[in-house]
Amino acid sequence: MPESSTSARALHVLQTVFGYPAFRGQQAEIVDHVAQGGDALVLMPTGGGKSLCYQIPSLVRDGVGVVISPLIALMQDQVDALAELGVRAAFLNSTQSFDQAMRTERRVRTGDLDLLYVAPERLMTPRCLELLQASNIALFAIDEAHCVSQWGHDFRPEYIKLSVLHERFPQVPRIALTATADPQTRAEIAHNLQLDDALQFVSSFDRPNIRYQIVEKANGRKQVLDFIKEEHAGDAGVVYCLSRKKVEETAEFLRAHGVAALPYHAGMDIATRSANQSRFLREDGIVMVATIAFGMGIDKPDVRFVAHLDLPKSIEGYYQETGRAGRDGAPANAWMAYGLQDVVQQRRMIDESEADENFKRVQTAKLDAMLGLCETLSCRRVRLLDYFGQESAPCGNCDSCLNPPVSFDGSVQVQKLLSSIYRVDQRFGAGHVIDVLRGIDSDKVKQWRHDKLSTFGVGSDISEAEWRAILRQAIALGLVQIDHDAYGSLKLTEQARPVLRGEQKVQLRQYQKPARPKRQAVRA
Ligand code: ADP
Ligand code: ZN
Prior knowledge:
- By secondary structure, the protein is α/β, with parallel strands linked by helices.
- The protein has 23 helices and 17 strands.
- Helix 16 (357-375) packs across helix 22.
- The two termini are 45 Å apart.
- Residues 20, 23-24, 27, 44, 46-52, 297, 299 line the site of adenosine-5'-diphosphate.
């Protein structure tokens, strides 16, 4: 098929089937390349529009597009959504009955499908491979392709076996897609899936119109109210909270202060929840106060801000949630208030979860990276993009760039903190350790005779809030850990030693009292 007619057909399908006027970013190039039979490796952030990169070539080419995805739970929804657009789609996975599977298999064989979603372990069965070999295949799309990387945390052994596709179906184009962009994962995908000769499409993860701002939390909901009133009066936005209860309370509070806020969380009855969602989508200037249950598949272009009142679990989560702001390309704000309590709470949630040790380790590492972003002395965007394996220069559009934090040699303060943690036998949480530092003779201090310690009161010149900020930075720097026990005991790490011995200096961020947010020209 000549090139121009493929692009014309692809655009026609985009407009008539999916109802979008134009391709986004690199979609057009990717679609053309695959529609013409080329292999591709696509790295695109979540929400970037990866699905169309294989759906449209599947419709443009003869035969069925086979989509390999580990996300079995989403297959029914994906198929239903496609069916609504008039696309003939079905899936094969372990959740369906034998009869359902048989029906789908028949449709594959008779050429009655445009798209087939398959779980990788299912695809690898002799039965499925034979079925596909006897059918007309338009392409193979390998979604969540980072699952083939042993280096990542999502490794799935079935993915390694997907290299047989190349051997068994050498004529069928393959497109692998992922939102994980680090160079090592990329190399492993290309190698393990035998996609070394595939064209690579690496989208930038940068969202230049989003201004990142992370502030010290004092009274979170009052701070977010000020932020909305001063910078976003009448704008649509999302305020994320960790718990359902906090969602309800915050929405109530904002409403009481004249903000058109609505709650959204998975515990609400479905009717109210979807009513709130459609008001957010249709009306102007609604502020949705929500848990992270809100946002999947929400495509509202003019969300002017996303605020976090609690720390996200990972940079991936933060990026995804903040990414819902400013899809139209106009200036938008990503604002977050965070404090030591967030770190303690998130640690506790990891420790108390049922997950295995390895998973907990990965979650802890992700939380640490998030903390590093919060505590960084340099550009937030540089740090964020670096996490996704992309180099960049200071952006001029984040709080660190616009109002550079002042740093100072905080070695002495950190030594005082570390010694106090050590002197209380690494068995007490933040509140108690800070009481000891500040020389507060609380009941607990007296009970444990900690007023007799050499570190009692050595930090009385520093406020409690400031000690909390120092402690957070010590955690972010990997000098202190919050322990698994119920008290959130503080423990010293190996890295604390050289600091305690005075062999290593520590730069700290100059403490600034939580201030009212600075006025920004949001509308250009
Ligand atoms: P990803 O898989 O990369 O996370 P999706 O394929 O789910 O992203 O797409 C994210 C959202 O963007 C979806 O709501 C989708 O319909 C929308 N979208 C994708 N491409 C376009 C486009 N060219 N024009 C308008 N909306 C698009
Ligand atoms: Zn910056």
